[in-house]
């Protein structure tokens, strides 16, 4: 029997509070974009209400197969026009509350999927 050392990704969500998120061992107190290999802080700095087409189009730079949008404490659907660039690029898009988006991100990461989570904390 062969044993292989597998190092868990440091980009997994390990905890979440009302206004913070922990990725690995680092806590963030701002909205972030989480990819399989990076954390991008400062996304949507004023929250869900001010998201525009450019914010969603910018997510394409991470080359995702699916984008999870964590919309805070409850699920909110953005207008279809805002996510048109993702739809036209045939990138999957799923809005959900932020806790669900974090759980789903971790599951899809474990499956080796190219997932991007845009997470709004407040």
Describe this structure in words.
The protein is built from three helices and eight strands; from the N terminus they run βββββαβαβαβ. The chain is α/β, with parallel strands linked by helices. Strands 5-4-8-6-7 form a five-stranded mixed sheet, with helices on one face. The protein has a three-stranded antiparallel sheet with strand order 1-2-3, with helices on one face. β4 (32-35) and β5 form a beta hairpin. It is globular. It starts with 12 loop residues before the first strand and ends with a strand.
The helix tally amounts to: 3
The succession of helices and strands, N to C, reads EEEEEHEHEHE
Percent range for β-strand residues: 25-35%
Assign the structural class, choosing from mainly alpha, mainly beta, alpha/beta, alpha+beta, or little secondary structure. Answer: alpha/beta
Q: In one word, what is the shape? A: globular
How far apart the termini lie comes to 48 Å
Mean pLDDT: 92
Radius of gyration based on Cα positions: 14 Å
Widest beta sheet: strand line-up = 5-4-8-6-7
Number of strands: 8
Contiguous runs where pLDDT drops below 50 for at least 5 residues = none
Estimated helix fraction: 10-25%
| Biggest β-sheet description | 5 strands, mixed
Descriptive labels:
three-stranded antiparallel sheet; 8 strands; alpha/beta; globular; 122 residues; five-stranded mixed sheet; 3 helices
